[in-house]
C-alpha cells in the first residue's frame, strides 16, 4: 500500500486570460509583417515578370517565420505553456511544422524554376548550380534534409513505429536544421537584408527563438535541478506492472508545481538514462516529497521498478495546465481511465471543493486494477467525494466511455442521471485518446460549457 502524502495547499501559478490572445496575435502579426516585407520588396510587381521567383521568395519567407514560431511553440515558455497546455501546443506545433515544411518545399521548387527560366538552363542543372555555387546553400541543403527527416518521423504512422525516446531524440534535429539555414538566408536571401527594418526583424526573430530555447529548454531545467537535487527515496508497487516512485530533495516547498502537472524525468541508473520520459505527479506536492506513478508500457516506464533509493533524478518542468488554475467554480467531476488516474488523484488533494461537490469516475477492467483505491476511498470519506467505478469491458458496438452494461442508454443520459447538475461542474478528464474523446463528447452533449471542460492528452 502506498504511503499517504500530506497535501500542501499551494496557489498554482496564475494564468492571465490575455496571455493566450497575446501569443496568438503576435504569431499572426509576424506572418502579416513578413508578407508586408515581401510587398515592400516589389513582390507584387515582380509577379507579372518573374512569377516563380517572386512566389518562391514569399513561400521562403513564410516558411522561415513559421519555422521560428514552431520552435517557440515548444520552447516551454512558462506563460505560453500554462495558457495553452502541452497537448494543444503540440498540436499547433505539428500543424505549423508541416505547413512550414510544405512551404519550404514550394520555395525550393519555385526558386529553382525561376532561376532556371532566367538562366535558360535545365531545372536539374540549375538546382545543382544553386546548391554548389551559392554561398550557404550546402549548409541549407543539409538543414533542409534534417527538417524533412523530422517531418517524416512526425507523421502519425511513423510515430507509432518509434519509441517516445527515439522520436524525441530525432526531433532535436529541428534545431540543427534551423541553424544550418541561417547562413543561406543572410548571405543570399535578399529579403532578409533588403532594408534595415527587415534585418532588424529577422535578427530579432532568430534571437528570440534561440534565446527561448536556451533559457527555457536548457537554462531553467539546469537551475531547477541544481537547486532541488532530487533523488529517489523509495519505489512502491501499486498493482500489476504499476509502481510509484517517491522523490525527495532540497527546498521542494519552493518548486513551482501544482497538482495535475507533469515532468519529463531522467533517472541516472544505467545505460539509456539520458532518454527523458513524461510522468505526472500522482499526489499533490506537499513541500517535502514528490510522487510519480507509471505503468509498464515500455522501457522508459519499466525501468522505474528497478530504481534504487538514492538514485539521482533529473527533471524538466513542471508542464501542463490540467490544474486548479482553470477551475471556474467549486463543483468538479473527474474522469479517469487506467493510469490516467495519476494527475486526477493529485487534483483530488488540491482542488478547493466542499463536501458533496466532487465526483470521481474511475474506469478499470476489474476491481483489482483500480489504482489508489484505498487512498481515494479514504480521501472520499474525509472530503465527501462521490465515487463511481466503471468496471468491465466497454461496448464493442459503439464508442463509449461506459462499460458495456450501459450500452442501451446514450452516454450523456447516463451522465445526467448520475450527476444531475453536471452542467454546473468543471470536468477534468485523463485517459486513452479514444476514451477521453468519448467523455468530452458526452460532457458537451450533457450541457457542460466548453470553458469548463479540461483535458490534456499525453499522446505524442
UniProtKB/TrEMBL annotation:
Superkingdom to which the source organism belongs: Bacteria
Cofactor(s), names only, from the UniProt record: FAD
A GO cellular-component term linked to this record: membrane
One Pfam family per UniProt: NAD_binding_1
Any one Gene Ontology molecular-function term assigned to this protein's record: flavin adenine dinucleotide binding
Species assigned in the record: Amycolatopsis mediterranei (strain S699) (Nocardia mediterranei)
Keywords, alphabetical: 2Fe-2S, FAD, Flavoprotein, Iron, Iron-sulfur, Membrane, Metal-binding, Oxidoreductase, Transmembrane, Transmembrane helix
Membrane-spanning segments: 21-39, 51-74, 95-117, 137-158, 170-188, 200-219
Membrane topology summary: Multi-pass membrane protein
Domain FAD-binding FR-type: 225-325
Gene3D superfamilies named in the record: Nucleotide-binding domain of ferredoxin-NADP reductase (FNR) module, Translation factors
Main localization category: membrane
Intracellular or extracellular location(s): Membrane
Matches recorded under InterPro entries: FAD-bd_FR_type, Fe3_Rdtase_TM_dom, FNR_nucleotide-bd, MRET, OxRdtase_FAD/NAD-bd, Riboflavin_synthase-like_b-brl
Record protein name field: Oxidoreductase
Amino acid at each position: 500500500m502506498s504511503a499517504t502524502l500530506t497535501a500542501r495547499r499551494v496557489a498554482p501559478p496564475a494564468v492571465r486570460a490575455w496571455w493566450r490572445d497575446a501569443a496568438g496575435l503576435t504569431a499572426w502579426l509576424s506572418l502579416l509583417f513578413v508578407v508586408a516585407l515581401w510587398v515592400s520588396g516589389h513582390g507584387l510587381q515582380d509577379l507579372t515578370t518573374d512569377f516563380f521567383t517572386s512566389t518562391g521568395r514569399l513561400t521562403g519567407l513564410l516558411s522561415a517565420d513559421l519555422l521560428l514560431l514552431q520552435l517557440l511553440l515548444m520552447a516551454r515558455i512558462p506563460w505560453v505553456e500554462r495558457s495553452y497546455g502541452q497537448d494543444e501546443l503540440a498540436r499547433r506545433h505539428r500543424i505549423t511544422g508541416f505547413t512550414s515544411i510544405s512551404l519550404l518545399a514550394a520555395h525550393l521548387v519555385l526558386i529553382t524554376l525561376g532561376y532556371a527560366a532566367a538562366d535558360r538552363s535545365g531545372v536539374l542543372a540549375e538546382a545543382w548550380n544553386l546548391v554548389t555555387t551559392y554561398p550557404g546553400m550546402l549548409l541549407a541543403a543539409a538543414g533542409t534534409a534534417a527538417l524533412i527527416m523530422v517531418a517524416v518521423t512526425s507523421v502519425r504512422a511513423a510515430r507509432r513505429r518509434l519509441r517516445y525516446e527515439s522520436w524525441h531524440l530525432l526531433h532535436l534535429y529541428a534545431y540543427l536544421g534551423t541553424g544550418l539555414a541561417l547562413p543561406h538566408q543572410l548571405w543570399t536571401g535578399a529579403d532578409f537584408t533588403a532594408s534595415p527594418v527587415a534585418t532588424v526583424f529577422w535578427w530579432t526573430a532568430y534571437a528570440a527563438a534561440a534565446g527561448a530555447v536556451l533559457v527555457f529548454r536548457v537554462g531553467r531545467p539546469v537551475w531547477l535541478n541544481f537547486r532541488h537535487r532530487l533523488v529517489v527515496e523509495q519505489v512502491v508497487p501499486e498493482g500489476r506492472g504499476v509502481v510509484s516512485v517517491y522523490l525527495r530533495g532540497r527546498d521542494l516547498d519552493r518548486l513551482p508545481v501544482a497538482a495535475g502537472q507533469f515532468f519529463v524525468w531522467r533517472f541516472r541508473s544505467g545505460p539509456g538514462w539520458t532518454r527523458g520520459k513524461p510522468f505526472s505527479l500522482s499526489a499533490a506536492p506537499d513541500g517535502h516529497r514528490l510522487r510519480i506513478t507509471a505503468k509498464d508500457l515500455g522501457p522508459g516506464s519499466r525501468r522505474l521498478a528497478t530504481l534504487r533509493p538514492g538514485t539521482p533524478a533529473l527533471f524538466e518542468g513542471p508542464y501542463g495546465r490540467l490544474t486548479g488554475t482553470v477551475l471556474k467554480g467549486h463543483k468538479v467531476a473527474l474522469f479517469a481511465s487506467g493510469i490516467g488516474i495519476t494527475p486526477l488523484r493529485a487534483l483530488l488533494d488540491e482542488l478547493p471543493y466542499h463536501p458533496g461537490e466532487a465526483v470521481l469516475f474511475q474506469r478499470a477492467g476489474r476491481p483489482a486494477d483500480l489504482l489508489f483505491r484505498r487512498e481515494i476511498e479514504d480521501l472520499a470519506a474525509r472530503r465527501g467525494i462521490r465515487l463511481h467505478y466503471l468496471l468491465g469491458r466497454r461496448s464493442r458496438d459503439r464508442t463509449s466511455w461506459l462499460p458495456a452494461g450501459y450500452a442501451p442508454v446514450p452516454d450523456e443520459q447516463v451522465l445526467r442521471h448520475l450527476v444531475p447538475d453536471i452542467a454546473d461542474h468543471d470536468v477534468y478528464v485523463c485517459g486513452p485518446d479514444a476514451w477521453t474523446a468519448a467523455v468530452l463528447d458526452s460532457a458537451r452533449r450533457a450541457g457542460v460549457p466548453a470553458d469548463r471542460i479540461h483535458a490534456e492528452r499525453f499522446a505524442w
